[in-house]
Write a structure and sequence with these properties.
The chain is α+β, with helices and mostly antiparallel strands and 101 residues long. Helix content is 27%, strand content 25%. Strand 1 and strand 2 form a beta hairpin. The two termini are 19 Å apart. About 8% of the residues have low confidence.
Length: 101
C-alpha cells in the first residue's frame, strides 16, 4: 500500500474490529502514520470532516486542528497494518464510522 496522506481515513487491519483512523501525520522515512480514531471524535468534528468532501486543502486544515487537540489519543501505525477505504473518506456519518462496509 502506498502511504496515505494527511486527512485520509484508513482502516486498521491488525485489529478484529477494523477501526477507522484519521491520518494526522505521515512519516515516510519510518513508513508510519500517526492518527486519531474516528470513534474518539465528537459528532460535530465528524460533520466537519464530511463537509470537506472533495476539498483536500480544507480537509488538511481541519486535520491540523484535530492534531493539535490535547485531549485526543493518537496512534502510530506502520503503513503495512493499514488499508485504504474503498469509498471516499467523506460520505455519511455511517460511512465514516464503518456502517457501510
Amino acid at each position: 500500500m502506498t502511504a496515505p496522506s494527511v486527512g485520509d481515513v484508513v482502516v486498521l487491519t491488525e485489529l478484529d474490529s477494523e477501526p477507522r483512523l484519521l491520518v494526522t501525520a505521515v512519516d515516510e522515512f519510518a513508513d508510519e502514520v500517526t492518527g486519531v480514531l474516528l470513534a474518539d471524535l465528537a459528532a460535530e468534528t465528524i460533520q466537519r470532516l464530511e463537509a470537506t468532501a472533495g476539498n483536500r486543502q480544507r480537509r488538511r486544515k481541519l486535520t491540523t486542528a484535530i492534531r493539535r487537540a490535547d485531549d485526543l489519543m493518537t496512534f502510530r501505525v506502520p503503513v503495512d497494518e493499514l488499508r485504504q477505504r474503498d469509498q471516499p473518506t467523506t460520505q455519511s456519518r455511517d460511512s465514516l464510522m464503518g456502517g457501510d462496509r
